[in-house]
Amino acid sequence: MMPAGTASGTDSDTWEQQCPLCGQSNGCAVAQGLPAAQCWCMTAEIDPQALQRLAPAERGQRCICPACGRAEPAQPNPGD
User: Fold this and answer.
1) CB 22 within 8 A of CB 53
2) Nearest Cα to 51, choosing from 37, 39, 65?
3) What is the pLDDT of residues 2-61, one digit of tens each?
4) CA–CA separation, 8 and 51 (whole Å)
5) Among candidates 66, 67, 61, which has minimal Cα distance to 16?
6) DSSP labels for 9-31?
7) What is this structure's pTM?
8) Which of 7, 16, 73, 20 is closest to 39 using CA atoms?
9) What do you get for the CA distance between the two ends of the chain, in Å?
């Protein structure tokens, strides 16, 4: 996650608020200057495979969006 507190309207702000996987808004509360506790990711189950899709240099530095981070519900096994 990127630290908050950058000046509004900069390329850095866009980078912080953009999902590195799909390019859409990541909805990051911290990038919007809000407390981390208000971020969508604090109460969501994040798909570990989605995080693995991040470039190594972006892991722990960039926030993905809810759509890309959504853990898919387990599918029933057709043989059950």
Assistant:
1) no
2) 65
3) 444 333 445 666 888 999 999 999 999 998 999 999 999 999 999 999 999 999 999 888
4) 27
5) 61
6) TSHHHHHHTB-TTTSSB---TGG
7) 0.68
8) 16
9) 41
